[in-house]
Structures are given as structure tokens and as C-alpha cells.
Design goal:
By secondary structure, the protein is an alpha/beta fold. It has 16 helices and 21 strands. Helix 1 packs across helix 7, helix 9 packs across helix 10 and helix 12 packs across helix 14. The radius of gyration is 22 Å and the shape is globular. 45% of the residues are buried. The structure holds zinc ion.
């Protein structure tokens, strides 16, 4: 295979001469992988954070530095519900912010509430108790915190390099950003020479018309079970996206969220490219409606292997049979794509491929044996174009962008043990990255 000018120019048994020659030595050459659901800024910020998921809340006391403590990975199963008073008991002399493992919630201590001015601010994202006192809990307050805390933007280039090392050459960032600055940080990083990824961005409805020069994916619509919007609000969000010529990607992890989203699609109509993000619970009776609307479910296979036991313990008994569908959706003709949801999930697509094949939880339970797919099929979930995530896997043929992933082993060997894969070289636009 030869590439020039950023594109593949020749595939065949005899390669024309080239300036740089790479001998694949029998290793598989694949199109670069696509992660169809990531959060790049949150990944970059997580690199400078304390992981309380691994170290427990006591790790907050050992955080390096003197000023802000940023922590990630909190879940109620670690130490119950968290609020400012519990954080103050651990750390009172520095501002602390702790992110829930799902990325949907921040908890601030009193010093952090004072520093950000959120103690008194009448922002709807700041939760208050019956007496009007801020609890420290901030629902989906990422943009608000970034604006109040300031500081230099996180190093997106570094996390992009980590993703490229897995053989990934393209991502869709699904952050429901409401602040144009979020998209501009991504655009600035992506413009830099040698940036290894093609990036598509979403953003919330408020940014539906904003163009920062990156490929524009669907508008992200967030439905949170704890405070579900009205059907009218969801319909309005869809209509707004349509007005900007955009598709929609709807965050659906519960039965109620999916029912609400489908009701909106029934009224507004679906378009090719509309997506259900996660689809953590897809009741079997809704599968036909997903197919009828032509919706794509963007699943995260790694979450089953990382948190499967937690899902089995937490969801309603009626929902257990419908958790993280994959194989049954494909068999029913529903389009499926895969993403990592990094940093909230494992960014390694090879782990995800093994997880989709095995569906083994940390305790060794198989979650939904009927949902298993082959490693070969799972790889294909990472090979479709960014703008057609459940489409046919991209192929290496003359004319396509030279976005490539070279493995150290033949494909059969690689897919027999996906977690042991060695990515030798990743190429983006003809350049080794
Ligand atoms: Zn996400």
C-alpha cells in the first residue's frame, strides 16, 4: 500500500517506490480506529486529578499542591452520598471539587463554593437544601466551573497522543458543552501540526449554530432521570438542532429517558445520523421503534467489563434483561457503534473489543450472554466513518484518507486475544503520528 498527499494512492502486490518504507512484517494494516463517544477536555483534565475511585476519599488529604484539588471517580458505592459538609470534614483549608464517576455531578467543599462565588449565585445548577443553603452539589456544571475557576486549558494534545497509541485516528466528542470556549480549545488543539486525530464535535443546543472549523456531529441532548425535561422541551431541543441543519445524539441510560426520547422522535421525526448515546437500558419492546426510526445506538462495551456488577446490583429487576444490548440490536437490524465514554470509561478500544466478545463483569458473571458478538464484529464497531457510525467499516483503498493502524500481529492473532494487541504504528493523513 502506498500513500501520498495524505491519501491512499495504491493497494496491490507490487508497491511503487516511496520516500518512507514501513515493512509491516505480516502485521495487520487496518483503517485507523474511530472512538464514537469521548470527552477530550475531561480526559485531559483528569490527568491532573486525584482518583478517589481508586484511592478512596482519604486520597483528597494527600493531594499534591496547595490550591485547588480536582478529584474524579466518585461513586456512592464508595462512601455513600457526598456533600460539602462531608468534604469539609476531610479537607477544609483548600478548595476541593470532586466529580462523580458518570461525569454528571460535581461536589464542592465550602472553600470551593466561596472561591467560585457559587455559595450565593442563583445558578440553577447549584443544588440547595430546604433552607436555601448550597449543598455543594452541582449538576452538569462543567462549563460553569471552568468559567469560575479559570486557568490554562487542559493539554488535549497529550490525550490525543494516548488515543493514537491505541490505533485511533478519529473521535467524536459528545460533551454537551454550552460554552463556545470549550469547542475553541478543541479546535486550537486540532489545528496544531501533528495532531493525531480527526475530531467531530457536538455541543449542547445552545451551540447548535456555532462552527469552530471542526467537523460538526449531532447536537447533544441530555436527559437526566433525576430531573427529566418535559416532552415539549425535548421536542424544542430537536427542532432547534434541525434548524441548524444538525442531527441529534440523545443521552439515554434509563428506560424513562429512552421512552421520552422516542416520544420526541415520534413527533419530530428521525434523520439519518440521529443517535442514542449509551442505551444502557433498552427494553425489548422498544427495539422495533429504534429500528423504525433508523436510530443508531452508540454503546460502551468496556462499561460492562468495568462496572457490570454494579449495574446488576443497581438497576430495577425488570431492567436486568435489557442491560447494554449489543448483539440483539445488531440481529434486529438496529445500527450499533462503539465508543469509550473516556474518561468515564476505559479509552482502550482493544479492551472494549474483548469486553463486547466476553461481557464478563469484574466478578466473572456474564452479563447478557445473548448480547455477545465476535471480536471481528466488535472491531467493526470502531471502523465506521465518524458521520455514519453504524455504517460499513472503512476500507483501505485508493482515494481514502491515509488514516491507518498497523498491528504487530496478523488480524487473526490480534482478534484471538484483543487485550494483548500491539499497535506498532498509527498514521494520520499519511504522517506517522
Ligand atoms: Zn459521555
Amino acid at each position: 500500500m502506498r500513500c501520498a498527499g495524505g491519501a491512499v494512492t495504491h493497494v496491490g502486490p507490487v508497491a511503487p517506490p516511496a520516500d518512507v518504507v514501513v515493512d509491516a512484517a505480516g502485521g495487520a494494516l487496518l483503517p485507523g480506529l474511530h472512538d464514537h463517544h469521548v470527552h477530550l477536555l475531561a480526559m485531559a483534565a483528569a490527568r491532573g486529578s486525584v482518583d478517589v475511585g481508586a484511592g478512596g476519599l482519604a486520597a483528597l488529604r494527600r493531594a499534591p499542591g496547595r490550591d485547588w484539588v480536582r478529584a474524579v471517580g466518585y461513586h456512592e458505592s464508595l462512601a455513600g452520598p457526598l456533600d460539602r459538609d462531608r468534604l469539609d470534614a476531610l479537607v477544609a483549608d483548600r478548595p476541593v471539587r470532586v466529580q462523580h464517576r458518570t461525569g454528571q455531578l460535581w461536589v464542592l467543599n465550602s472553600a470551593a463554593l466561596a472561591r467560585t462565588g457559587l455559595e450565593a449565585a442563583p445558578d440553577v445548577a447549584v443544588e440547595r437544601d430546604a433552607n436555601g443553603r448550597a449543598t455543594g452539589r452541582l449538576v452538569r456544571g462543567d462549563d460553569l466551573l471552568r468559567e469560575r475557576i479559570g486557568g490554562p486549558p487542559p493539554d488535549v494534545g497529550a490525550v490525543a497522543g494516548e488515543l493514537a497509541a491505541f490505533g485511533i485516528t478519529g473521535v467524536t466528542d459528545l460533551t454537551p458543552a454550552t460554552d463556545r470556549g470549550h469547542l475553541e480549545v478543541l479546535a486550537d488543539a486540532a489545528r496544531r501540526d501533528g495532531f493525531p486525530l480527526e475530531v467531530a464535535v457536538t455541543g449542547a443546543g445552545a451551540l447548535a449554530d456555532v462552527d469552530v472549523g471542526l467537523r460538526r456531529g449531532p447536537v447533544k441532548v441530555v436527559l437526566d432521570d433525576a430531573r427529566l425535561p418535559s416532552l415539549d422541551d425535548v421536542v424544542a431541543a430537536f427542532v432547534r438542532a434541525r434548524g441548524a441543519g444538525r442531527t441529534v445524539a440523545v443521552h439515554c441510560v434509563t428506560r424513562a429517558e429512552l421512552v421520552l426520547a422516542l416520544a420526541a422522535w415520534d413527533l419530530v421525526g428521525a434523520r439519518p445520523g440521529d443517535r442514542v448515546e449509551h442505551g444502557a437500558v433498552v427494553p425489548v419492546e422498544l427495539v422495533d421503534r429504534l429500528r423504525a426510526h433508523g436510530l443508531v445506538v452508540v454503546t460502551q462495551p468496556s462499561l460492562v467489563s468495568a462496572r457490570g456488577d454494579q449495574y446488576l446490583a443497581d438497576v430495577e429487576p425488570d431492567d436486568v434483561a435489557h442491560l447494554w444490548r449489543c448483539g440483539s440490536l445488531l440481529a434486529s437490524g438496529v445500527g450499533v457503534a462503539a465508543g469509550s465514554d473516556a474518561p468515564y470509561g476505559d479509552p482502550d478500544p482493544w479492551h472494549a473489543i474483548a469486553a463486547a466478545r466476553d461481557r464478563t463483569t469484574p466478578s466473572g458473571t456474564v452479563l447478557g450472554a445473548g448480547e455477545r458478538i465476535t471480536a471481528h464484529r466488535a472491531l467493526a464497531l470502531f471502523l465506521a466513518p465518524l458521520d455514519d457510525p453504524a455504517g460499513a467499516p472503512r476500507r483501505i483503498e485508493p482515494g481514502v484518507p491515509a488514516d491507518l493502524c498497523l498491528l504487530a500481529e496478523p488480524l487473526g492473532v490480534a482478534l484471538a486475544a484483543p487485550t494483548a494487541v500491539t499497535v506498532r504504528t498509527t498514521v494520520r493523513g499519511g504522517q506517522v503520528v
